[in-house]
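Try it yourself: sequence plus 4-fluoro-L-phenylalanine, in.
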Amino acid sequence: MAAVREQFGSRLGFILAAAGSAVGIGNLVGFPVAAAKNGGAAFLVIYAFFVLCICLPVMMAELAMGRCSQKDPLNAYRQLSGRSKLWSIAGWLSLITPYMIAVFYMVITVWLFGYLWQVGIGNLDKLANPDYFAQFINSNSVFAYFLVVALLVNAILLGGVKNGIERAAKILMPTLLVMLMCLVVFVLTLDNAFAGVSFYLIPDFSKINAGVINGALSQAFFSLSLGMGIMMTYGSYMGRNEKVAESARFVAITDTGVAFFAGLLILPAIFSFNPSVNTAELSESSVGLIFTFLPKIFLALQLSIGYFGASLVAGLFFLLVFFAAITSLVSITEVPISSLMETKSYSRKKALLYLTLTMALLSVVCILSFGRIEWLTEFVGYAGKSKSFFDVVVDVFYETILPLNGFLVCIFVAVKWKKQNFDVELECGDPEYKGSLVERYVNFSLSSIIPLVLLLVFINTVALKYFAVNLL
Ligand code: PFF
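Structure, out:
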């Protein structure tokens, strides 16, 4: 007899766990950088529009597929498609994608922990040295940090859905929100902070072009943890009396709210450090901002609040991002765990052991690809650039496949699973959903505009990333 599927203990538990998944490095750092470079509030408006009109229906579709099938993404596709071989491919993609994203996300989380630790032992000055990051990622201490992060993630996941994931989210998420607010309030008291605020909140629509619009959608999609099988898996742990649409709305609001406040933290901090900053010169990547730019800003605070005070602020920031990353990492690792438990009837412990070992191996390969092993460092070349193993994992699984997975979800719901079944699932626990405007919009958009837009984003990303051709 199949074991009874685990469930979240409460609606709040689900919302906090799903928001914990959604709130991550993408919100806290990726969003502020993108907003800074692309017209501040103008980017925010476009981002919010995509969250509402494109991402929210996809999130509802993923949650509904999970809740209806009570399965992980691979088996959800299999079951709801009547074991179609073709749709199993989409299921496999929804399994391999989170597995590989977890690998690279783990590496960044390990760096975050390393920086947190270094700040904690009084080494903020070292981190602010521009050469430090390159040395750090190739130091042996990374393996020790790796061990700690892996143990922490395992400890949470071993507790299961209710006593592990939900319990951790109930502690980490409120703490994260309080830390974020404290940091925002503090940063707003700094000199020149309001130059950053007005730069952020006064929209500059002249920066908006097709590339920026594409970037805003990709950012929103990633930020809400879509296309990664996470929402299907978490949906499968949702009670049948829960309102899917409403819960999805809460998750999206929390995620977008955190991104908004992260902008209110990062931009004033940048402007107070250098009032004449040219934001176009900000690093393209979140990684550059977190690990090289921000430590310099934190250290500069020692002039006003002393070295201890500066370290405290830096520590709070790294703890904030670390908590956000841990809850995301937990959610993404849960996807292959639930698949192994379902498909092979493994216990949670056994599934976790298998996954930890194989993922650790791949994460170590990533760690070795920053210069330690040449062929991993210069793994392949495309679009005129040499790429490391780590770069390839990021490019393929984070940049490219997510919109494709989103496209497949839409087509699956519209063509294979069928609108009527989808509606029944969303109406379950939520009778007011039936016949509502939201229902009509979701049904219409999932079978028309949304897949079209996601397909375009996918095609443009492939052309741009691998052939250096911008179609937009
Ligand atoms: N919403 C997460 C973020 O913004 O960082 C997306 C995510 C990434 C979730 C990686 C889970 C994950 F492992």
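One thing you can check immediately is this: Strands lie at 380-382, 385-387.
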